[in-house]
Amino acid sequence: SSYDWFNLELGVEVEGQSVNLLPYLVSYLQSQKRGRSFADLQQQPDDYPLLIRVENGAIIHLPLGRVRHMINTLVELYNPDVLEDDGRLRLSRYHSAQLARLETPQQALKWNGGKALRRFGQRLRDFNGIKTVKVPASLKTELRDYQQQGLNWLQFLREYDLGGILADDMGLGKTVQTLAHILVEKKAGRLDRPCLIVAPTSLMINWQREASRFAPELKVLLLQGAQRKQQFERISEHEIVLTTYPLLSRDSKVLLGQLWHLAVLDEAQHIKNARSQAAKTVAALDARHRLCLTGTPMENHLGELWSQFHFLMPGLLGDDKRFRKLFRNPIEKQSNQLVMEQLRQRIRPFMLRREKSAVATELPPKTEIISAVQLEGAQRDLYETIRMAMDLRVRKEIDNKGIARSQIVILDALLKLRQACCDPRLLKLESAKQVKQSAKLEQLMELLPEMVEEGRRILLFSQFTSMLSLIEDELQQHKLGYTKLTGQTRDRAKPIDAFQNGEAPIFLISLKAGGSGLNLTAADTVIHYDPWWNPAAENQATDRAYRIGQDKPVFVYKMITRGTVEEKILDMQQRKQQLADALFAENSTASSVTAEDLQALFEPLG
Predict the structure, then answer these.
(1) Who has greater pLDDT, 365 or 109?
(2) How confident is the model at residue 232 (pLDDT cuts 50, 70, 90)?
(3) 560 φ, ψ (degrees, to nearest 5)
(4) DSSP output for 233-252
(5) Are the CB atoms for 548 and 147 separated by under 8 Å?
(6) How far apart are CA 11 and CA 4, in angstroms?
(7) Cα dihedral 63/69/72/74 (nearest 10)
(8) CA dist., res. 242 & res. 239, Å (int)
(9) How confident is the model over 439-464, as pLDDT tens digits?
(10) DSSP codes of every residue in 254-320
(11) Concatenated DSSP letters for 579-605?
(12) How far apart (Å, rounded) are the C-alpha atoms in residues 337 and 140?
């Protein structure tokens, strides 16, 4: 029906009449569901007889082996509306390898139509390994073994017209692998259109520097700032065009009107909401090839992964509604390991993920330390007062509107509790102004002078820029050198260079502005002043220091207040990490955050 979709029917001839078997197979599966599991049926031998009664009363004796792969597809898509109105099965072209598997030398089928799709399926079926690609001499670095394998994989995707996610751990060189891939395309004469790279604003400097350093022959155009519109007419003169996620919707007319060779989304989790304008814009790009780069392909739930594959290869995971029914609900709500394995098998060819522990064995050890402190006195009383008031408000809101429509009140309550843990001065409450103590800040200022004295180089992250300002005041009083990076920092290169060059031992960074894209291997200590729900965000921030090029052991301190909402956040982090591990690693169990967790967040201290 189009380039990415096709309709399939499975016909047999019964007493001179053509019969489409698919509706009868669906009915058969529905009847089997009542008596046995699909898994049991799939494990039967090829000669296992399927006895199917068709409309004219005839019973067809069909060996399972003839339709096993069709059965597997129907099982995966199982629901009452799996077929179109005319009894056909609508599939993505990425299912076409199954067409090739339907036919064996012993069981010839007569085909009507679909020649191009079947050829594509046969190529996938006959695939015999990824070829080694010669690295262009113009690449100004030597690729590590796993980076060479990454380049080979990127070229395999391009050759087979597939999309994929390069999901290496943060700091393993996804940028240089992508630049090498583009250089190969140029050398082969295929780069007759520019490549579009979309990244967070904070990474524009990094992409410019890396391209200049490793691939200086590539012509790079940066579309950023008020003057960018003057550059639009020069897009076709360049081989790489850089833009940011916030600018996608503003510049959509120009970007969608341009033909691209390759569209790359760096930190691709930024399109985790498929309904966002950014996600809709990149999905509509006219690009021959598509690629996602991210060390965290899933931060909170499987829907984020679906959004990225919807950009890469629409239809591979079905539409959003079907994906939720077939995969998200069974995995996230029921911890269904069989469904988890089906999803893992589906995405495995299109995702390349390597962890530091496996490929960067030369990296020094990383030690995580939970630095806990007890709230006392007036600060403890303030926290309890806020907790009781907010608990009552949240319960009342949920009773009136339900959890789904009470998100603003819930988040506001949790924000106030987190602020009370960090420093009462963050709260815009009259009662908080009377509280002069901050247990966590006091503990921090006991740690920092000693660390600086030992020669440590420290990255200090916080969600709250106002908290960084309070810490800044303390550092000035203690005469400790520092530099700072927040969303308000105009010249990002200046504080980065100051820290890397040893001009300041402490780097204050807001998690949102500097949690990704920075290479700060001069650091050997990372402090998370306040925990965040998403473990991936914290891990990304930590990996500003713990990445290729680091030659010192790295110590990571997570500061929390005992018995408070911060301890509950740590527990939620572990659950979200389990879900990610279950999808990307073998023999893991999935778990999701439930509505019942809400009550635990508002428990009294102790």
Answers:
(1) 365
(2) very high
(3) -140, 155
(4) GGGGG-SEEEEEHHHHTTTH
(5) no
(6) 23
(7) -90
(8) 10
(9) 999 999 988 998 998 889 999 999 99
(10) HHHTSEEEEEEEETGGGG-STTSHHHHHHHT-EEEEEEEE-S-S-SS-HHHHHHHHHHHSTTTT--H
(11) HHHHHHSSS-------TTHHHHHTPPP
(12) 45
3-state SS, residue 27:
helix
- Tracing tokens 């409450």 back to the chain, one arrives at 429
Q: Distance (Å, rounded) from C-alpha 338 to C-alpha 341?
A: 5
- Cβ 558 vs Cβ 531: under 8 Å: yes
- pLDDT value at position 548? 73
Quote the CA–CA distance of 148 and 171 in Å, as a whole number.
Answer: 16
Per-residue model confidence as pLDDT tens digits over 395-423 = 888 888 877 777 788 888 888 989 999 99
CA torsion angle for 389, 533, 336, 584 (degrees, to 10)?
A: 180
pTM passes above 0.70: no
Distance CA 242, CA 224 (A): 8
CA–CA separation, 550 and 169 (whole Å): 14
Bridge partners (DSSP) of residue 289 are 262
Count CB atoms within 10 A of the CB of residue 261.
Answer: 19
- pLDDT category, 479, cuts 50, 70, 90? very high
Query: Taking a C-beta distance cutoff of 8 angstroms, is the pair 135, 215 a contact?
Result: no
Query: CA 301, CA 272: separation in Å to the nearest integer?
Result: 9
Q: pLDDT of 65-88, one tens digit each?
A: 777 766 766 665 544 455 666 667
Rounded Cα–Cα distance for residues 140 and 176 (Å): 10
Q: What is the 3-state secondary structure of 375-432?
A: CCHHHHHHHHHHHHHHHHHHHHHHHHHCCCCCHHHHHHHHHHHHHHHHCHHHCCCHHH
SS (H, E, C) 164-210: EEECCCCCCCHHHHHHHHHHHHHHCCCCCCCEEEEECHHHHHHHHHH
- The confidence score (pLDDT) of residue 263 equals 97
Residues 6+ apart with CB under 8 A from 44: 64
Contact 379, 439 (CB under 8 A): yes
Collapsed DSSP state (helix, strand, coil) of residue 53 = strand
DSSP one-letter code for 93 = G
Average confidence score pLDDT of the chain: 82
Is residue 182 within 8 A of residue 138, CB to CB? The reply is no
**Helical pair 565-584 and 407-422, crossing angle rounded to 10 deg:** 110
Structure token pair of residue 227: 């003057």
For residue 138, the 8-state DSSP code is T
| Mean pLDDT, residues 96-121 | 66
The total number of residues shown for the chain amounts to 606
Neighbours of 472 (CB within 10 A): 14
